[in-house]
Design a protein that fits this description.
By secondary structure, the protein is an alpha/beta fold. The chain is built from 8 helices and 5 strands, in the order βαβαααβαβααβα. Strands 2-3-1-4-5 form a 5-stranded parallel sheet, sandwiched between helices. The mean pLDDT is about 90.
Length: about 160
């Protein structure tokens, strides 16, 4: 399958879904949000699923869902935890360019607020700082391109991503 897609990865609240919709409009592409696909499969919100079935079950569901994605000419916003599934990331890489939206931790904290209300995939006792330190190397490992989001407006980020396309 040709790499006609763009995948956005990054921390929760990094703007993957928000920028993804706008980017798809700018580039006349389709848009897919894997978090929404996971919720549709689960039949309940991500947080409710995690509360009912546990973190491991959620990550298995997310991994299987992402590996099932098939599309062409789409912008795909992934859940922040998709990078934990090597098979999912290999699948996405086979059909897309992967762009990491690198947002500073302080900004992530400001945007997220209470992690328990947002459906963030986080181990019990782990802080957002811990999560950032654990995931950032994975995002860098899987990214074809890294967009430094520090101090940039959504329009500036869209223009930067568009130049990569």
């Amino acid at each position: 399958m040709p790499k006609s897609n763009i995948v956005l990865i990054g921390m929760p609240a990094s703007g993957k879904s928000t920028l993804g919709v706008q980017l798809a409009k700018w580039l006349s592409m389709g848009f897919m949000d894997t978090d929404l696909l996971v919720q549709a499969r689960a039949g309940i919100s991500m947080q409710a699923y995690q509360n009912a079935h546990g973190l491991d079950a959620y990550q298995t569901l997310e991994c299987d869902t992402v590996k099932s994605v098939v599309c062409e000419n789409c912008v795909i916003a992934t859940g922040g935890s998709a990078v934990y599934c090597e098979g999912a990331m290999q699948h996405l890489r086979s059909m897309a360019r992967i762009i990491f939206l690198d947002v500073p931790l302080d900004e992530i904290k400001r945007r997220i607020g209470d992690t328990s209300q947002r459906g963030v995939v986080i181990k019990p006792g782990m802080t957002l700082d811990d999560l950032f330190e654990e995931r950032r190397p994975l995002y860098l490992q899987h990214a074809d391109e890294v967009i430094d989001c520090f101090g940039k407006t959504p329009d500036e980020l869209l223009a930067e991503i568009r130049c990569l396309s």
